[in-house]
Amino acid sequence: MKTLSLIGSTGSIGRQVCSVVRRYPEKFKIESLVAHSSAELFLQQVTEFLPKYAVLVDETAGKQIADKIPAGVRFACGEKAAEEAVEYGEIAFIAATGFAGLKYSLKAARLKKDIALANKETLVCGGELVMNEIKGAGIRLMPVDSEHSALWQALHFRADAPFRRLIITASGGPFYSYTKEQLQTVTPASALKHPTWQMGAKITIDSATLLNKGFEVIEAKWLYDAPLEKIHTIVQPESIIHSMVEFEDGGILAQMSYPTMELPIQLALTYPERFDCGLQPLDFEKLGNIRFLPLERKRFPCYDLALTAAEQGDNYPCALNGAGEIAVRAFLEGRIAFCSIAETIEYALEKTERVCPDSYESLQETDARARMLAREFVESK
C-alpha cells in the first residue's frame, strides 16, 4: 500500500485524487490532508479518509469545523501546519494552486519524498531550484498535467530519455478563432466555458488566454532538461492527443484518450503499474476528424509573454506567474477586460528587475513585487 500526503484536497485535482483512493482503498492511504478554506467539503474528506493529520490553511474556516473533526485525527490550521503535513506519507501529492505550491514541493524534495506534481507554479517559478533539490535527493517526480504525463509516458517514464522534439498539444480554448474585436467582448462567464476540459477557474482562464500553454513549455524545459527550441506546441481542438514525442529516427509516439484527468492522476500514483480507472475506451470509428492547427505565438499575447519570460530566464517566469494570478483574479472580478490580462502581465514584466533566484525567499520577493506591479496596473485602468 502506498501512503500519501494530499496538499490541495478540495480543488479539482484534489477531489479526483480522492476518487482514485476511493476506487483502490487497498492500494492507497491518505495520511495527511490539506485544503485552504473549503471547510465543509474538507470535513467530508477527513471523515471519509480518516488521515492522521488534517490542516485547513484558513484559520477562520478552520474554527467552523474544529469541533467536528473525527476522533483520532490530529487537526490544525495555518501555513506552518500545512507545511508540516508534507512530512506524512511516502508520496507528496502537490495539488495546491498558485505560488504557494512551490514551498510544499521544495519541502517534499528536502524530505526525500517522491512527488506527484499537479502544481504548475512549482516549475514555472522555481524550476532550477526544485530540480536541483530533486536530483540531489534522488527522488522521483511524477508529472500530473495531462500534457506532461503524456510526454512522460511516451518517454517510457524516463526524464532523461533522448528525443528530437517534445510536441505539446493545446485545445486552443474557447477563443482560438476570435478576432481582436471579438476578444474585446469576452466575459468571465464565457471564458470559463472550456470546450473540452472541466477545471478550476484560474487554469480555465489561463487556458483561454493560452498562458497555460506557455507555462507548460517552461515546465517541459525543466522536467526533461529540454532547450526551448526542442519544445513545439500545436493546437489539437478535440483534446484526444495529449502530447507527443518525436525521436531521432523520425518516429513519433502519442498518448491518446478522451479528455480526463483521472488517467494522469491515477498513473502518477500507480506508476510503474497501470490499473483500470474507469476511462471510456476510444471509439475510433466515431471520432471523426482529429485536427492539428498552428499555435501562432504573436496571435496570443499571454502565450508570447510566457515564451519571452522563458527565454529571459532567471526570475522572469516567476514574475510572469505572480502578475498572471493578479490579472486573472481582476478579470474574474470584472475589474479589467479579457485583453487586459496580457497588458497587466506585460507591464509587470517590463518593470521586473533581473535576479538569479538562489532560494525560495528570493523567489518570494520576485512574486511579491510582480503582484504589486500587477495591482498597480489594474488600479490604473
Polypeptide structure, described:
The protein is an alpha/beta fold. It contains 17 helices and twelve strands. The strands form two sheets. A seven-stranded parallel sheet has the order 4-3-2-1-5-6-7, sandwiched between helices. The chain has a five-stranded mixed sheet with strand order 11-10-8-9-12, with helices on one face. Strand 5 (91-94), helix 5 and strand 6 form a beta-alpha-beta unit. The radius of gyration is 20 Å and the shape is globular.
Instruction: Catalogue the unreliable spans.
Output: none
Strand order within the widest beta sheet: 4-3-2-1-5-6-7
Number of helices: 17
Class of secondary structure makeup:
alpha/beta
Shape: globular
Mean pLDDT: 95
Q: What is the end-to-end distance?
A: 54 Å
**H-E string:** EHEHEHEHEHEHEHEHHHHEEEHHEHHHH
Instruction: Please give the share of residues in helix.
Output: 40-55%
Instruction: Work out the radius of gyration.
Output: 20 Å
